[in-house]
Amino acid sequence: MIEPGTSTTSTGTSTTNTGAPSATDPVFPLTVGVEEEFLLVDARTLRVVPAAPLVLSTAAGLPHELHAEGTRYQVEIATPVADSAVILRRELAGLRRTLARAARAHGCRLLAAPSPVFAVEGPLHLTDDEPRQREQHRRFGALTDTLVSCGRHIHIGTLDVDTAVAVSNRVRPWLPTLIALAANSPFWGGRDTGHASWRAMAWAGWPSAGLPPHFTSTAHFRRSVQTLLGSGAALDTKMVYWDLRPSGNWPTLEIRAPDMSPDIDSAILQAELARALVATALREIAEQRPDPPVRDDVLRLARWRAAHDGLEGFGLDPYTGVELPAADLAEALLDRVAPELDASGDLDHASRTLAGLLRNGSGAHRQRTAFARRGDLTDVLRHLVEETEAF
């Protein structure tokens, strides 16, 4: 989690020699990269199958972009760094297409779903290397069942660790709105959970997950990481599962809160909003504007309400705690970052995609609509497969 090439000064802040811009620089063009996690399901039964090693061996032409995940039911793609949403969309579509073909070759289908709709049968199939995973299972027990879930991780760079920490404080209040926009996991283990994003709730059960603290300094961030390690809440820095964190491997800020969603336009919207939030934060820091006060208790409740209601219900204003329609909060986020979206050429796409979500419903809403036709969960899975493969 500690970036290479850093040192701590006597004042408790850090200096870097990575060459990455700092928060005192003018706002600069930001890059974006995305990691997406998918489930593999049997083409006939639509239940998850531990076929990841076979699928990845077939799709091995792009070894740096295709990866194993925590279990053999999952595969992951990681896009190259992109300078624009247009390039990012092309990369995502190409990688999804490659994985979908490889899955079909082994009697599987690719599923861009945050959670297994049906319960996973039998013992959990973890990946192989894995003294580490065996230790994780020994220490955390049934929490490891939630490893069979899929998110989207958005990396915004290039940021040194000091800047990433400062920016995270300003992006943090909008994490609940990003969760509501991406909510796509109402069904888990064969039943409706009553939440739009059950993944957000289940994943927050890990002691190293959920909302990150508000950091007073880079030293505070590092102490928080060391506290997770020292308390046994995390085996290593890979297990810092906060919804938002300075990346441990790259000079980026990594947003981990959103559910995986099948349609690419929604994926691109999340990346556009994330990059614009970071750009907005950088501009505010350069202008020496103070952080708006956000109460931790209000933000925790806002996160839960977003996971419960999704885009169709209500949420909490992160600054005031006032209940508002989730759609209003989504539009407020768009308004907040509109200047940066306009500057990067993303405003038209972001506006159209958000309008489509508000008109047609979130992923969670669309899943429930599919289920309501016949009360059959296989209809939900067929719907998800179709949306996933609509490149």
Q: How would a textbook summarize the main sheet? A: 7 strands, antiparallel
Query: What is the helix/strand order?
Result: EEEHEEHEHEHHEEHEHEEEHHEEHHHH
Tell me the total number of β-strands: 15
Q: Mean pLDDT across all residues, rounded?
A: 89
Question: Helix amount, in percent?
Answer: 40-55%
Indicate the proportion of strand residues.
Answer: 5-15%
Overview of the molecule:
There is one protein chain. The chain is built from 13 helices and 15 strands. The chain is of the alpha+beta class and 391 residues long. Strands 3, 4, 5, 6, 7, 12 and 13 form a 7-stranded antiparallel sheet that branches.
Short descriptors:
alpha+beta; two-stranded antiparallel sheet; disordered N terminus; globular; 13 helices; 391 residues
Summarize the structure.
The chain has 391 residues and is α+β, with helices and mostly antiparallel strands.
SSE layout and pairing:
Elements: E1 6-8, E2 14-16, E3 31-42, H1 52-58, E4 66-68, E5 74-78, H2 85-105, E6 108-111, H3 131-140, E7 152-157, H4 161-171, H5 175-182, E8 187-188, E9 191-192, H6 198-203, E10 209-210, H7 218-231, E11 241-242, E12 244-246, E13 252-255, H8 264-286, H9 296-309, E14 314-316, E15 323-325, H10 326-344, H11 347-360, H12 363-374, H13 377-388
